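Re: the multi-chain job from yesterday

Posting the exact lines I submitted so nobody has to dig through the queue logs.
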Amino acid sequence: MLERRVLEPDPGMIKGLGVHHTMESAVADLIDNSVDAGADRVLVRFDTEGVQPVGLHVADNGRGMDGHQVDEAMRLGRQRDYGARDQGHFGIGLKAASFSHADTITVRTTPAGGERHGRRLRRGDVQRDYSCEVLDPTTLHPEALLSRVGGVTGTIVSWSDTRFPRTGGAGLGNWVEDTRTRLSQHLGLVYHRLIAAGRLRIDIDIYDRDLGRAGIPESVAAVDPLGFAVSAVPGYPRTLVAHVGGDRIPLRCHVVPPKAGGPNYRLYGRDGADFQGFYVYRHDRLLQAGGWNDVVTADRARALARVVLDDFAALAPHVRLNPEKKGIVFSHDLHGAITRAVDEADHRTTFADYLSRTETVLADSRKRQHKRRPMAEPAKGLHEDVRRVIKAEVPLRTEEEPVQIRWDAMAPGRFFELDRETRTIYLNKKYRSVLTGGATGLSDAPLLKTLMFLLTEDHFKGQQWGPRDKDLLEVWDAVLGAAVQAELNYRSTRR
Ligand SMILES: Nc1ncnc2c1ncn2[C@@H]1O[C@H](COP(=O)(O)OP(=O)(O)OP(=O)(O)O)[C@@H](O)[C@H]1O
Ligand SMILES: [Mg+2]
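And the result, structure tokens for all chains:
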């Protein structure tokens, strides 16, 4: 060796920071810090100017930071001494999560004793020389937000100069709402154990700067991906144990009841089959929601398989976490150990046995499903989410043409008509705007249309209508006509 040179990292490396974060994973990373700081309440607030989203805050009632701690907090990759139950690990989360969506991060914090500290990190400054602004404590005004989380001590992390979508128009009001919904689903899933145990409450609200007013906060509800009524399958859930390098790793193997269709199964409103696999927890925080980590392959036949790994201390030596805390990588040895895992109670049941059990449970339930009375196939007019569920749940009379639902002009006093020729359920257009609240579209009024479909689909079967069919349709039309009239009166007196 000729000499040794110290090559300081170029601040330009900041560019890559946080590129793997989604909005949901970024906010969860900030909340991890809140939880590590002992907070049991968190408020996530979107700032808007009219319909434009312009900022975001995460406020907590944790223990806050003193002047030294907050300086360290702003440093990239500064790893403090972590407690055994901390989520923090890399010393990067706050910065990477925030810079993934904003160019300016402001941290205001109040530790016990009531002093206040403020720091601001601008992406440009960090890229130039890693410098950070120290803010004047008298200008910080954290009270308004801290009081929302019942905090005397606490911390507020704020994003400004955000890179949220910035197109105008009505679509954008939806961006904030859609993001709030996705965020709520994600946080409800990731922290479901803490929320259900009353150890954490997360509220989300939207603050309109033009009006100087916040909307009503919504509390995030726990979504337990294993929260099903007693298992339909005897003997499950059961615990298999994987042995690797002297560590004993319990795998809690669940078989989701085949009839489960609710939010605990359809995570994020998606097909629950996409969420088969491992559920990995670290100190009751969900790190991974499904996925087989290359141990086996995903397969629709395994839709009902969900396996909980929540002894993170035993698992830690055999996995790698990524800094976004989104999913983890299993070591080669862990793969092998899981495929060899056995139930210690009977010394027999293997991981392969468990998987094939979930497959037979699903296959049997499908067979049973075919005994369900077939329905007409729903077509245009019925919301696609509803069509998807109908197709998943019941066999269809595919030998017939599908049935559609449309609005049309009709004689006054009529509510609906069936046309067997065109296989259409017509609804009286006169009631459309009232029943949809004005927001019309091809698949509007999903609830009403679904009820009408379920009520009448049988009438599209077979040959001619007999006198009894015709009479029944007349009865329905009369009754529904009276109902819609009562609905109109009710709505007009409410205003
Ligand atoms: N809300 C908060 N309340 C109190 N301290 C905080 C808060 N947010 C951040 N900190 C402090 O800032 C430090 C840096 O946070 P950051 O998220 O960047 O890294 P980390 O949590 O240590 O590790 P990781 O990269 O795994 O998240 C934390 O270790 C903690 O000491
Ligand atoms: Mg962190």
